[in-house]
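Task: encode each sequence below as structure tokens.

Item 1
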Amino acid sequence: MAEDNKTEQATPRRRQKAREKGQVARSRELIGSLAAAAVVLVLAAQAAAFPGEWRGLLRSALDRATGGELHPETPLWGWNHLAIFRGAGLAIGLGWMVAIAGAVAQGGLVFAPSTLAFNPSRLSPASRMRQLFSVTALSRMLKSLVPVAAMVYLTVTVLARDWTAVLDLPRLSARGLVGFSLEHIFEIAWKSSLVLLVWSGADYFFEHRKLEGDLRMSRQELRDEFKETEGNPTVKSRIRRLQRQVRRRRMLEEVKRASVVITNPSEFAVALEYRPMMAAPVVLAKGRNLLAQQIKQIARWHDIPLIENPPLAHALYRAVEVGQSIPPKLYTVVAGILAAIYRAQERAQHATGRGGR
């Protein structure tokens, strides 16, 4: 049932963890088949030069032997060995390079220190025997028998096609025998390499699908990973709520410095501050519904003028954020309100002064 619940694609973090453990889609058969194909092509390209190099070696050896100069320290051996095995060395080197390139192309450069850690079970004969006689080992053996059977079929087909020429081999000269053998060996080799490439490509496809299946995740695993990387959603929601509360308390404290509060009687409230040194009035606080009622209550407690202007309150609430200056298009309206407030305050102060006298 646990496997059935794994319906989600693996996340990048899960893929990275698998990579750190050395779990990548990689086919050993593809690496070997690429190297084999490279070796076959290089040897086939240099096959025409092999007979001449061997003839040169034999001719030089016979000449030295006739003159009595043939011994193990003769430079003949080193130079001719280098010429003869140069092609083999080139083929082997190119095969190694192609194999490394194929491995890197499949999974990139992977360094997994965890796989190098000491594991006593690897030294246990019982565990090794279980691996040798496991279903996985049996499936690998059966997979290897398929390309082997295909290569045997190709060999039999080639020989059956030219069976008449095979029967006539004893009548051929040495040159003809070598040419016939090399031609058919190369044909069998490149066809076998092609079979291996096709089979190893299919093997890589299945390995990739198997890895994707192993890395699939359940919804619970996705939630757990999200909690590990992003934090618990409940805790984060509580933190955001506390942050909003702190910002709200700080904003309500700023209302005490306001010059005027513009209201839409019951829905909006915007507190503005203006001082002579300011370029334009600044929004200290704004709120809607309950927060608007709190702003108006603070304004009443601190004798801050409350002006009902629904269009202006709505425009300020929608267009201006807390801490920003009002837009130029609202300068005239706000300036008129502030001027009216200042005139009212001056009249009140003047009336208070006269009453005191």
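Item 2
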Amino acid sequence: MYSGNFAAETEVDQFGTTRVSIGINPFDFGWLLAPGESFQTPEAVLVYSSEGLGGMSRTYHRLYRTRLCRGVHRDKERPILINNWEATYFDFNAGKIEAIAREAAELGIELFVLDDGWFGKRDSDTSSLGDWTVDRGKLPDGLDDLAARVNRLGLQFGLWVEPEMVSPDSDLYRRHPDWCLHVPNRRRTEARNQLILDMSREDVRTYLYEALSDIFRTVPVAYVKWDMNRNMTEIGSALLAPERQTETAHRYILGLYDLMDKLTRAFPHILFESCSGGGGRFDPGMLYYMPQTWTSDDTDAVERLKIQYGTSLVYPISSMGAHVSAVPNHQVGRITPLTTRGDTAMSGNFGYELDLTKLSPEEKSIVKEQVAFYKDIRGLVQTGDFYRLKSPFEGNETAWMFVSDDRKEAIVFYFRVLAEPNGPLRRLKLRGLDLNCNYRVSGFGDCYRGDRLVQIGLPLALPHKDYTSVCFRLTAES
């Protein structure tokens, strides 16, 4: 349960005995412990399962969702959002944002998230990180005015920040060049045109707390996407003595936790989502402060089958952000049906990451149906027992399902990546159902007993095209 550099090792000795260890990575790590002082290592969570990986996953899901995560949002249904990043990138103004938000309101979406580019002089990724004041060129009436306009449309307002970073081209860096991680007389390696603030320093954390608090107190922010978009290099601190420099990376994480703790306690109404170039820092240490994580910047529906399937091995569905993006997909250029993109994204915390104003009337109708459908099922998706049925790592198909605690309700998603000529007849065997209960299945005329659905399965009739998905609901007959 740690967000820093770690090592996980498995060793088998000459007697066939296996030893597994996990903890802080020993590379470039040291800690000077004076007499009478103590050092707390990160906790490790071990799970026993008599039901294989599926049982292990469901135990982790319940533990992390109901015990690790905290705050008022832990047990609440998560809002359906629209994020403007892939719709506009840095090129937007208040009018463009309001136009997207208006479309979102008409489609039933609940939250608008303003992504990167709203602060400093941020017209590209080359400047302004650290300068957390609104860009009056894009938003001449301020962030509070834009949030109020979004709120008047019936949507909550969310905001993207990347507090741990600083751009060399920023007022903050020009004032405090020693505030970033660095080693004297060595180059300061940039990635994405940015450096990393030294979170082990109390003065850095105080600045960030005050800068962010000023925004959260004056703007009706309901959601924050907290990004961290590069790896650490030249891990040194200007305030630590030479013999303590190897403590820097761990002190960074402790400082980060301290800042997050203060902010989440001061603003408990805000739903915080962690992000690190997508899922680069998806761990239970972060989930303690932020109950969900942006699972990956790779939003292609086919790619997401593996990403979300793999993430589900340990992390609850309620922790996985999943959005529908435009086609051709910005990352891989693939064109997938809107229905398939929706079914994939509805298997997590659902949202959209595209320009709603550019959708056709038919596409808007589909989106409206998806939003209404997800509102009906999200309680089951976010808190139900999750069962993986077919692995995208083992073939052309992926399938999973969500089952309610009382096993009276379930929803199944099935995906086929590529069509096959004269393919075999397919049956999908389900799991987690009451074997003695009768279930009515949407799209099928008859009722089926649970034992038949588990042992024999449902026949699948699929259209002859690539990137197909189907979804069906099961309801127990009284």
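Check on item 2: The first helix runs from residue 52 to 68. The chain has a mean pLDDT of 97.
End of task.
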